[in-house]
Design a protein that fits this description.
By secondary structure, the protein is of the alpha/beta class. It has 3 domains: about 80 residues, Ubiquitin-like (UB roll); about 120 residues, Alpha-Beta Plaits (2-Layer Sandwich), CATH 3.30.70; about 350 residues, Rossmann fold (3-Layer(aba) Sandwich). Helices cover about 35% and strands about 15% of the residues. It is built from 19 helices and 17 strands. Bound molecules: iron/sulfur cluster (SF4) (3 copies). One iron/sulfur cluster binds next to helix 3.
Length: about 575
Amino acid sequence: MENVNLKINGLNVTAPAGSTILEAAHAAGIRIPTLCWLKEINEIGACRMCVVEVKGAKGLVASCVYPVAEGMEVRTNTKRLLDSRRRTLQLLLSAHDKKCLSCVRSGRCELQELCQELGVDDEDHFAGERNHYEPDTSAVHMIRDNNKCILCRRCSAVCEKVQSVGVIGPNNRGFATFIGSAFEMGLGETSCVGCGQCIAACPTGALYEKDNTDDVLEAIADESKHVVVQTAPAVRAALGEEFGYPMGTDVEGKMAAALRRIGFDKVFDTDFSADLTIMEEANEFLERVQNGGVLPMMTSCSPGWIKYCEHYYPDQLEHLSSCKSPQQMFGAITKTYYAEKMGIPPEDIVCVSVMPCTAKKFELQREDQYAAGVPDVDISITTRELARLIRRVGIDFRSLPDEGFDDPLGESTGAGVIFGATGGVMEAALRTAVEKLTGKELEKVEFTEVRGTDGIKEATYNVAGMDVKVAVASGLGNAKMIMDKVRSGEADYHFIEIMCCPGGCVNGGGQPQVHADVRNFEDVRALRAKALYDNDAAKTIRKSHENLSVKKVYDEYLGHPGSERAHQILHTTYVKRTIN
Ligand code: SF4
Ligand code: SF4
Ligand code: SF4
């Protein structure tokens, strides 16, 4: 690619032609503050935080959208620029609920940070008439509070461009502009899929998950309840970020120790039920292949994807695997097999899940998720909520020892742990399905073609003389491309993995929010996914069908994968929904 030479703050800088001033400055180690800019998602140059001076240009220019040119001379930090940024912040604050003391985002809020950085202490500089909004609490998973919205539009850009959902966006004009849904419907009335990617994108406390941490503490305080917790694979790859660990640090051992100290009676692992899912899903796939069932079969672990399919592709539901998600399988087996084994009535067990996902709060309330006549899972909290809980009860996370999970629902294989990355479910399923089909042990368990953070991956494997064509998609915009091909009959895949969030659960809407300064320049998904693949590589058992505890559950209780009992407990159905 052709390069251009320019000067930024008097330094000679070389940058690829076509890049923006902001990108060129970043590559040269010069930080320009931003608020509305999300790389390749929201490049609207609207907030005016990233303004710079360009010699010869009329007025200040937005560096996030202004391309570099040969011989250009740029200044990023003059007094005029700092004053302009301060004024921008003062204007934003004039329409803002400044409740930093109690705000869920305080300490990690990009607006708060910029105010501190630029020394904006006269928050009421432009005080005057402003709009007040009733927070939207209608969705199961999240709250939207426009009183803290700065109209950056990062949320609506993600919802529409990345997730192809588009249920939120600016309503009205000028002073009356606010972010909402069409016809001012509550988010819960729309076809929002609950992914939380808007929360992950929001720089302020305007969007946040419904907090269930008090429900967890209440359950633990109730001595008549046996409270078990399960942790999804991706949580261990990101929880450490909340406590100052570098991105991609696997904190599985400290996480288990923290959960024990919070007071859970048993600390279990969703990786166990990820292995169980593979047993059922691989069996279902083989049955469909051998008996002329509906193909391609599609994975069903991701509740945001399921809801998306129900709203936008209700005519394609027969492609979905009937397997419950690992969260729900875990709850179902806890309230049946484990309850019987321990002699505890299922109604006295509280099953809490820690998930990288906000859609799980919706999933646990779905119909047909009551294997023992009570909800399979009672409370689902996000990775962020777990971090909040750890702080709230006064645990010094960094000083904790590494501890393991409890038996019998804490044992897992490497296949279970890679569920958290895009392609992981496919790889885990292939490790089992190929051995079942060929009757031979795999020489190499890695299926690297389905790894990586590309939005769509395809591969063909020759298994026992049959070409098995698979596809993997993450992010609903990519899912849409695959689904349109399936609907039109153009796709000739046998098996498709779809994850709602781009990059899979490691980048779920419930994971620690990543500051735009990092998100725009680092491959967050790859860093977190690496923690899971390293965890897998370090395991002695890496195939779900070799999980001894899972085998025991089949021997003692379920019979075999796909048995009638397994179907009653571990499988589910879907509903046709409309688009709102
Ligand atoms: S959104 Fe940020 S600035 Fe606003 S109250 Fe919350 S922490 Fe403070
Ligand atoms: S949760 Fe997902 S689908 Fe719902 S508004 Fe946010 S980004 Fe859109
Ligand atoms: S809700 Fe958050 S992301 Fe959306 S426009 Fe407001 S501040 Fe920006």
